[in-house]
UniProtKB/TrEMBL annotation:
It is found in: Cell membrane. It comes from the Bacteria. The keyword Methyltransferase does not apply. The gene is nrfD. The chain crosses the membrane at residues 20-40, 52-73, 93-113, 153-179, 191-211, 232-249, 269-292, 304-331, 351-372. It is a multi-pass membrane protein. This is Polysulfide reductase NrfD. Gene3D superfamilies: Formate dehydrogenase/DMSO reductase domain. Keywords: Cell membrane, Membrane, Transmembrane, Transmembrane helix. Pfam families: NrfD.
Length: 386
């Protein structure tokens, strides 16, 4: 703790679970948008990851409210926003937005996999057959006209889901940006910055999941798909970095009373996570992603560079969430002091529970993939150069 800090600011109240909240919702939004790029905008190159991205979005969406519920200490209190709705509460908005978005995602998953569910029900026995028949909800007509109608409904749902996904995460940025008393959080750019970083982290995560799935299934990575994801990741990353740096540059140029505290925060209090956000998670991946698209670079090197860049971006976005959530609370309202943050191993939203929540969506994803395999027919098997 340095400088002048008010007594009620000594303790950082929003810990690592609140860091996870915008991080996981961002991964949800980004994964859904990857899926929608195929279903709505017709990006055929992304067909190999279109269904996988949607299932990934569902897996992460199921875990998205968990950090908030655990942070409350009394999870059942979360239902108060439904029993006693208050339209003037920005915090309560998450419940409505999340519920609506979950319905959209569940419907889209069901319509996309309905044909598969009917086939699985017809070609299985016992409990498995019963389970798949239940999942069809009795809709077993898979004639061409019905499937064509399913496709139209999926397109409409994806069109509804894109603004819903954007709103879900832009809303998180809105919450932070609307807190005027916090010099680091209060900026009208905050919702856009959160949204862009969400798309970036979601695309990067899909690259990692797709690469891991191909490795595990011994299938060849579709290079056209990977290059398209590379281009989208690079483009959104450029916009994201520009917005973040413009916001920081404006704060430095205005040099208001809080700027010395913000500058000290990044330079002395959280230099490691700030370096991770700017260099590991942004500038280095921007360069590597460009190199990965050079024709003179071999396919193996292109895959390696793109996957490395994606891993760095995912880590960098987590560092950005940490810097915003934890760093913002470390700046005293006196604007001339910084409090400290100490992450515990287990207690008080510690590191181990945080890692556990981060791993949980991946476990759910594995289960969902076992129930609803998102793979396409005719995928090339892995060869020796892989």
């Amino acid at each position: 703790m340095t400088g002048y800090v008010y007594p009620n600011e000594i303790e950082v109240n929003w810990g690592l679970f609140i860091v996870l909240y915008p991080y996981i919702t961002g991964l949800v939004a980004g994964a859904f948008i990857v899926s929608s790029l195929y279903h709505v905008f017709g990006k055929e190159d992304l067909k190999p990851v279109s269904r996988l991205s949607l299932v990934s979005a569902l897996a992460y969406l199921m875990v998205a409210p968990l950090p908030l519920l655990l942070h409350l200490g009394q999870p059942l209190r979360a239902f108060n926003i439904l029993w006693t709705p208050n339209p003037n509460s920005a915090m309560a908005g998450f419940g409505y937005i999340y519920s609506f978005y979950m319905i959209v995602v569940l419907l889209e998953v069901w319509f996309i996999f309905r044909e598969d569910l009917v086939h699985y029900a017809d070609n299985s026995t016992g409990v498995t057959r019963f389970g798949y028949r239940m999942l069809t909800l009795g809709a077993r007509d898979i004639s061409p006209p019905t499937l064509a109608m399913d496709h139209k409904i999926v397109t409409v749902l994806a069109m509804i889901g894109i603004p819903s996904a954007a709103f879900l995460h832009g809303y998180v940025g809105f919450i932070f940006g609307a807190i005027k008393a916090n010099a680091l959080w209060s900026t009208p750019l905050q919702p856009v910055i959160f949204l862009m970083s969400a798309v970036v982290s979601g695309i990067a995560l899909q690259i990692l999941i797709y690469a891991a799935a191909c490795k595990f299934r011994k299938r060849r990575i579709d290079m056209a798909c990977l290059k398209t994801l590379n281009k989208f990741l690079w483009a959104f990353l450029i916009v994201d970095v520009l917005l973040e740096e413009l916001d920081l540059l404006q704060k430095a140029y205005e040099a208001r009373e809080a700027w010395p505290a913000i500058h000290t925060l990044f330079e002395e209090a959280i230099p490691l996570t700030h370096f991770t956000q700017i260099w590991i998670g942004a500038f280095i991946p921007i360069v590597l992603l460009i190199i990965a698209r050079w024709d003179r670079v071999s396919n193996a090197a292109q895959r390696l560079l793109t996957i490395m860049s994606s891993a760095m971006v995912v880590i960098g976005v987590f560092a950005m969430r940490f810097n915003v959530v934890i760093g913002g609370q470390m700046i005293s309202k006196s604007n001339v002091g910084l409090t400290s943050f100490q992450a515990h191993l287990v207690a008080d939203e510690g590191i181990i529970p945080t890692v556990g929540i981060l791993v949980l969506p991946l476990i759910i994803l594995v289960v969902l993939i076992r129930i609803l395999p998102p793979w396409l027919e005719g995928e090339a098997a892995m060869t020796g150069d892989h």
